[in-house]
Write a structure and sequence with these properties.
Layout (H helix, E strand, L loop, with lengths): L1 H7 L16 E5 L3 H4 L1 H12 L3 E5 L12 E3 L6 H14 L5 H7 E2 L1 H9 L3 H8 L3 H13 L3 E5 L1 H4 L4 H15 L8 E4 L6 H6 L6 E2 L3 E2 L3 H11 L11 H5 L9 E5 L3 H4 L3 H9 L3 E6 L11 E4 L8 E4 L4 E5 L12 H11 L9 H11 L8 H4 L5 E2 L23 E2 L18 E6 L15 H6 L4 E5 H6 L7 E5 L4 E9 L6 E5 L12 E4 L6 E2 L3 E7 L1
Parallel strand pairs: 1-2, 1-5, 2-3, 4-15, 5-6, 9-10, 10-11, 16-20, 17-19
Antiparallel strand pairs: 7-8, 12-13, 13-14, 16-23, 17-20, 18-19, 18-23, 21-22
Length: about 550
């Protein structure tokens, strides 16, 4: 997330996963941790069992919120109002870490001015949380010696996602809950190697290691290594590519391990774009909804059929060994890329994954000391690991931030792009369920998991369901300004009136045909978490 990168570097977890168990206070915001990150949730619950206090901010009463000492059931899209209110309390009651602010940060005067102009009662009204609860949470987090923040897509998937993350960084710096063990700001990555993909330059504006393509010295280094002139301007984001429609200027795409027909917002537009291409190639381990539209499908090898490394949420690089030979015509991602590059006239010949790792270490300073032979003798190394004798970095920013001093960035609350009205009176939120993963390409191939959760359900407040004449199991037609779908209803008491929740794992109920493609202007992340909808009995 670009906003966090301003102060904290790459947007990776600042601290290690196991440190969570040693925290005194854990603040979980925008994360359904027990269902989306059960191994992280296990550490959080272990900490609670050992006496840690847990604060959870979520519009839904999730499983992890049931273990919380304070559940802040905020309105969707009001995270900045909540965070500003907490910081206003901390400032007013003298709970800031003055020494840390003086030595390690800048622009505090502007943040202080901004916060003093805020009215706690007004912010509480915007967030929908009683001011007394906000004050209790603020005092608890600020009063701890070891405070951890964990957040996920409930923070970033908004048009103000960058400002949300910057506000979290403000809160952590205001209280000095960074730069030491058992503290920190920890974004929970949504997939097993999404951190590694970002580290390796799968972001439009950077080379591996978050080295900017606009920097001529960095660009020259990679040009020498790769023997080709490289662009100085960032490329396109996913939504820039997939939402252009038929007349989009892009003639061909190669999509690897991604299912945008299911996972992108306003998915009908994605399907229109992909069908309008002259050529589409997809590499995947299953024939996904996106792969079904491809002219060519490359059968990719699964994790068990290849060697290489993955980098997890805590920046830990781990070595995988091939367990079984590739099945049928499956090939590893690197083999597919190398042969395709050769067909396009660029020779890319690596003997094995260890040789690729050596090039990564040569060109990427934060990976400079990470090699396969070192990973063979340990359970992973956490970057930054700049040299062969370096033991890795359990937590970041011990002496300074990536940019030098941490910069406070004040933010006003920004309302969602779409709010309820007479035509679309409900707010729809999307997310995951415990038994399934992402677009269901893998988990729905499991009979056991599909038996447990065979279809999507629409969670609706029990009073709203009664008002609409809906009972458990009824089918409804759910509509937004972009599309519609049918889904089965489940009345619940875990969400407030006027709110709906559904998972996005099921192609039979393609909720991302409804979601809003409005983007955060900095990070270009879509606002999956809030869109206005209507529903009626099918």
């Amino acid at each position: 997330m670009a906003g966090l990168a301003t102060t904290f570097g790459s947007g990776a977890m600042t601290n290690s996963i196991n440190e969570i168990t040693g925290a005194e206070v854990i603040f979980v915001i925008g994360s359904n941790t027990t269902e989306a990150h059960p191994q992280i949730a296990r550490r959080i619950l272990e900490a609670v069992d050992s006496g840690a206090k847990l604060i959870v901010a979520d519009p839904r009463r999730t499983e992890i919120s049931r273990s919380a000492h304070i559940h802040l059931q905020l309105r969707p899209g009001s995270d900045i109002a909540l965070l500003n209110a907490m910081m206003r309390v901390i400032l007013s009651e003298g709970l800031v870490d003055d020494a840390f602010i003086e030595m390690r940060t800048e622009n505090f005067r502007e943040l202080r001015k901004h916060l003093l102009a805020q009215d706690i009662d007004q912010l509480a009204a915007v967030s929908g949380i009683p001011a007394s609860q906000i004050k209790k949470a603020a005092r608890l987090y600020a009063g701890a010696q070891k405070g951890v923040i964990c957040y996920c897509l409930g923070i970033t998937q908004h048009i103000c996602g960058t400002a949300n993350v910057e506000s979290i960084a403000n809160l952590a710096m205001l209280t000095g809950h960074v730069e030491q063990a058992y503290t920190g700001v920890n974004p929970l990555r949504g997939q097993n190697n999404v951190q590694g993909a970002c580290d390796m330059g799968a972001i439009p504006g950077v080379f591996p290691g978050y080295q900017q393509v606009s920097d001529p010295l960095i660009r020259e280094k990679f040009e020498r290594a790769w023997g080709k002139a490289l662009p100085s301007e960032p490329g396109l984001t996913i939504t820039d590519m997939t939402h252009r429609g038929r007349e989009n200027g892009i003639r061909a795409m190669f999509i690897m391990g991604e299912n945008p027909v299911m996972s992108d917002p306003d998915a009908s537009k994605v399907e229109e774009t992909l069908k309008g291409l002259e050529f589409l190639a997809v590499s995947d381990i299953f024939l996904t909804e996106t792969a079904r539209l491809a002219h060519v499908v490359f059968p990719a090898a699964s994790f068990a059929e290849k060697c290489g490394t993955v980098t997890n949420s805590e920046r830990r690089v781990q070595l995988m060994h091939q367990a079984i030979p590739p099945i049928g015509e499956c090939r590893s991602d690197s083999e597919i890329i190398m042969e395709l590059a050769g067909c396009l006239g660029y020779s890319m010949e690596y003997e094995n994954s260890a040789e690729i790792m050596e090039e990564i270490a040569l060109l990427t300073p934060i990976y400079g000391g990470i090699f396969h032979d070192r990973l063979e003798t340990c359970w992973g190394l956490q970057w930054p690991c700049p040299t062969r004798d370096h033991t890795g970095t359990p937590y970041l920013h011990k002496y300074s931030f990536a940019r030098g001093k941490g910069r406070f960035v004040p933010a006003e609350n920004i309302m969602p792009d779409e709010l309820p009205d007479d035509d679309y009176p409900f707010i729809l939120m999307t997310g995951r369920v415990y038994h399934h993963y992402h677009t269901g390409a893998m988990t729905r191939a499991s009979d056991i998991l599909s038996r447990e959760v065979p279809e999507a359900v629409l969670e609706i407040n029990s009073y709203d369901a009664e008002e609409k004449g809906l009972r458990h199991g009824d089918m409804v037609s759910l509509r937004s300004r972009r599309g519609e779908m049918e889904v089965r209803v489940k009345p619940v008491d875990t969400i407030s009136r006027g709110m709906l929740y559904v998972s996005f794992h099921f192609h039979e109920s393609p909720v991302n045909r409804l979601t809003n493609p409005a983007l955060d202007p900095v990070a270009k992340c879509p606002e999956y978490k809030v869109c206005a909808v209507n529903l009626e009995k099918a």
